[in-house]
């Protein structure tokens, strides 16, 4: 036992010495709190995970993506989407992945409180504010360069947050999820927003037109009607789009005769219900175009 204890101490001392040496050489691998493994970051209303880019924060702090998972997902699962997360990290962004709550009696796992006709488990806007305040303190994020996004029901949450609180983030980029029926009334949104909506042409889970669920008890919304509501919020003067782009993997259309500083764009891809390949680069490039002062 004495020999085993001595060997353990020698190995522990060697490991600590190596870590200190690497730190002194500037090569110690970063092990941020709240990553995929180990405990999540905790705020009063819930938990979240985070992935950090390499290097020191730029003046003003890191830009940050907050990405809300789909039904049954988790924040850790969001960070395992390597193709999406790596693109943001490579461009110097922090990726924040909140955790939804399980609704009592639900078989679908964690989700979000956004549906206008269902009991609310949590104030998701307040939860988001808590996350952003905590992440700004812990990880030096720039609150003026935050992009809110999410997939499926996480994307639906983003539409409702953008409508109710357009100043919560600099821009919004939901994927494969929009308003639900009954849609918000015209004029119900609090003000102009910057929003890029991405959707699969062949999406059968959340079709562009929406669909009834649970025997018609709840009804997904129509993406095009949602865009009309946001055109109204953005003060756009026309119904049709003003610009189009069909190059590359996305067919895009956007409205320009709108309130200065607002932005509204639809990006379609040929796939189904997914975060499509190339979406991260699309969202990052769009953010750089529409958010004043973004260094990208």
Task: Summarize this structure briefly.
The chain is α/β, with parallel strands linked by helices. 30% of the residues lie in helices and 24% in strands.
Number of helices: 7
Shape: globular
Strand content: 15-25%
Q: What is the CA-CA span between the terminal residues? A: 59 Å
Strand element count? 15
The structure class reads alpha/beta
Q: Quick one: biggest sheet?
A: 10 strands, mixed
Low-confidence runs (pLDDT<50, min 5 residues)?
A: 1-31
CATH class of the largest domain: Alpha Beta
The CATH superfamily of the largest domain appears as Alpha/Beta hydrolase fold, catalytic domain
Question: Architecture of the largest domain, CATH level 2?
Answer: 3-Layer(aba) Sandwich
Nearest-integer average pLDDT: 89
Topology:
Elements: H1 2-24, E1 41-43, E2 46-51, E3 62-68, H2 75-79, H3 82-90, E4 94-98, E5 101-102, E6 110-111, H4 124-139, E7 141-151, H5 153-164, E8 171-175, E9 180-181, E10 194-200, E11 212-213, E12 218-220, H6 223-233, E13 243-245, E14 251-255, E15 263-269, H7 279-290
Parallel strand pairs: 3-4, 3-7, 7-8, 8-10, 10-15
Antiparallel strand pairs: 1-2, 2-4, 5-6, 9-12, 11-12, 13-14, 14-15
Helix pairs in contact: 3-7
